[in-house]
């Protein structure tokens, strides 16, 4: 199977699981911290599609992210950054602005755009080394020590590996984190 098809399938599964989790969550779960010193579920939920958008568009393609095109910039939670390096107060403030249904719509639109891109590129392009650090250093929202430190392990790695780890595995781990933390005390 082609790498692009495997990655598209993984991202489709992640998107489906975001919907499943959102249906499972109760309204009060999104802004309730069941475990001290963890992020609120709404923040982590927002973070998942933001990492995919920034990885694909800023990191790999060096083009504007989907978050910068309508209707997304007008959303109270829209940021051209991924939340890495936020203080607890900054993360909580963003979480309070998150509307889960809007984030799901953004994730759906993002899944569609990324799937179209994956269908259009040859697999050898997915083996090209990434230049995330170079691209991030040009963007104010990403040119921070915390983000650059987080991106450093991906520098020079094949795009397919970056997509698999940063977009699929990372996102899936966060979905399970939300499910675990929101389920505490249920």
Describe the structure.
- This protein has helices at about 5-25, 40-60, 90-95, 100-120, 130-135, 145-150, 160-185.
- With about 190 residues, the chain is an all-alpha fold.
- It has one domain: Four Helix Bundle (Hemerythrin (Met), subunit A).
- The longest helix has 25 residues, at about 160-185.
- It is globular and about 45 Å long.
Unreliable spans: none
Provide the domain count: 1
Query: Which radius of gyration do the C-alpha atoms yield?
Result: 16 Å
Arithmetic mean pLDDT? 93
Percent of residues in β-strands? under 5%
CATH class: Mainly Alpha
CATH names the topology as Four Helix Bundle (Hemerythrin (Met), subunit A)
Number of helical stretches of at least 4 residues: 7
- The CATH architecture can be given as Up-down Bundle
What is the 3D form? globular
Number of strands: 0
Main sheet record: none
Helix and strand composition category: mainly alpha
Share of helix, binned = 55-70%
How would you spell out the order of helices and strands? Answer: HHHHHHH
N-to-C CA distance: 41 Å
What descriptive keywords fit this protein?
mainly alpha; Four Helix Bundle (Hemerythrin (Met), subunit A); 7 helices
């Amino acid at each position: 199977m082609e790498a692009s098809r495997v990655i598209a399938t993984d991202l489709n599964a992640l998107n489906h699981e975001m919907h499943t989790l959102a249906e499972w969550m109760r309204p009060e779960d999104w802004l309730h911290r069941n475990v001290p010193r963890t992020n609120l579920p709404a923040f982590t939920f927002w973070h998942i599609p933001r990492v995919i958008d920034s990885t694909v568009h800023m990191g790999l393609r060096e083009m504007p992210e989907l978050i910068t095109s309508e209707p997304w910039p007008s959303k109270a939670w829209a940021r051209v950054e991924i939340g890495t390096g936020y203080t607890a107060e900054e993360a909580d403030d963003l979480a309070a602005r998150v509307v889960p249904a809007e984030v799901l719509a953004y994730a759906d639109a993002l899944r569609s755009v990324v799937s179209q891109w994956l269908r259009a590129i040859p697999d050898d392009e997915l083996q090209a080394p990434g230049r995330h650090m170079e691209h991030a250093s040009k963007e104010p929202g990403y040119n921070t020590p915390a983000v650059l430190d987080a991106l450093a392990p991906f520098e020079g790695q094949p795009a397919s590996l970056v997509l698999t780890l940063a977009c699929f595995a990372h996102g899936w781990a966060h979905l399970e984190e939300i499910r675990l933390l929101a389920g505490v005390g249920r």
